Amino acid sequence: MLFKLRKDGSTAVAGPLWMKVAAGAAAAVVVLLIGLAVYWSGEPEIFWVNEKPDNERTVVGYATVDTLVRVAKTMLDKPGGYLSNDIMPPGVVLDNIPNWEFGVLQQVRDLARVIRNDHSRSQSQSREDADVAVAEPKFFFDNDSWILPPTESEYRVAIRGFERYRDRLSGIGGNAQFFARADNLREWLAQVEKRLGSLTRRLGDSVAISVINTDLAGDRSAATSSELGDNVTVGTSWFEIDDIFFEARGTAWALVHFFRAAEFDFDQVLSDKNAAVSVRQIIRELEASLQPLRSPVVLNGGGFGLFANHSLVMANYLARANAAVINLRELLDQG
């Protein structure tokens, strides 16, 4: 028996001394792991974007590439480090921050690919930047590999490649180019639009059970590889609601920084289209979606129920941001 009852009604640890020491040590370890879990589950603060490599001159493209590097570094170096591939407690039992990391990673991958294919090249037949060509695929390495090689080592190789490209943009160690054109900005916005649209739908599915199948709407000749019914089941599993919510939070966190950088690097393009206000509106909606979560859990109340539905609130902000992205793309399409 581990505990015994004293005459005064209190309890005391019974048994040999080693059992008392072991029980105390186990309790201390549990408290420590819980404390670490709470600390590691905090989301990083938004940082300010660097517009210039120094205080004297502006380099087109510096803000975007430097922000990509800093976002990726924050994902790896925040409290607890990179948790998606942890196999030891408390990281192995945490799932909110790993999903947040995946949301950030998706945006890092999208922007890195656009930099490689569009921002760093003047046209489709031009040669791609050597550092970017080597670095960009590294961000697409398996996001939960813990050994041979660990995910972090691959992502750090990618970061160093983009750091070299950033430094060459600012004239350190050679020449590099960043083409801030309207068509290049549209390419990135197209990726953002798809990500936000998908996340909005998945967040909304927290209360939806089924939706009308509109996959082929508007095209009489369209076809699919397999037949789908008129009603499609879309309800989100109770176990996945918080996963999607924190993936959306990570997405919004990364995009706040990337749109702030785009304000600097594409300033002339946005001014010519009178579209700077659209970017500011997107940033405002994304910042609003990152307000602190006051509840200890992600609530999933009904749309008009007694309790809040955090997924629907997040979906509202992302849907408004996505609508502004669509409007911005249309503005850039106009001559």
Task: Characterise the protein shown here.
It contains 10 helices and 4 strands; from the N terminus they run E-E-H-H-H-H-H-H-E-E-H-H-H-H. It is 54% helix and 4% strand. The protein is globular and about 75 Å long. It folds into 2 domains: 36 residues, no CATH class; 267 residues.
Blueprint (SSEs and pairs):
Blueprint: E1 3-5, E2 11-13, H1 17-40, H2 62-77, H3 96-119, H4 130-135, H5 151-169, H6 182-204, E3 210-212, E4 231-233, H7 241-265, H8 267-272, H9 276-288, H10 310-333
Antiparallel strand pairs: 1-2, 3-4
Q: What shape does the CA trace take?
A: globular
How large is the count of helical segments? 10
Helix content: 40-55%
Distance separating the two termini: 82 Å
Strand content: under 5%
Give Rg in angstroms: 24 Å
Task: Count all strands and give the number.
Answer: 4
Strand count, sense and closure of the main sheet? 2 strands, antiparallel
**Helix-strand string:** EEHHHHHHEEHHHH
User: Which structural class best describes the helix and strand composition?
Assistant: mainly alpha
List unreliable stretches of 5+ residues: none
Average pLDDT metric: 88
Strand order of the largest sheet: 1-2
How many domains would you count in the coordinates? Answer: 2
In a few lines, what is going on in this structure?
With 335 residues, this protein is mainly alpha-helical. Helices cover 54% and strands 4% of the residues.
What are the key terms here?
335 residues; mainly alpha; 2 domains; two-stranded antiparallel sheet; two-stranded antiparallel ribbon; 10 helices; 4% strand
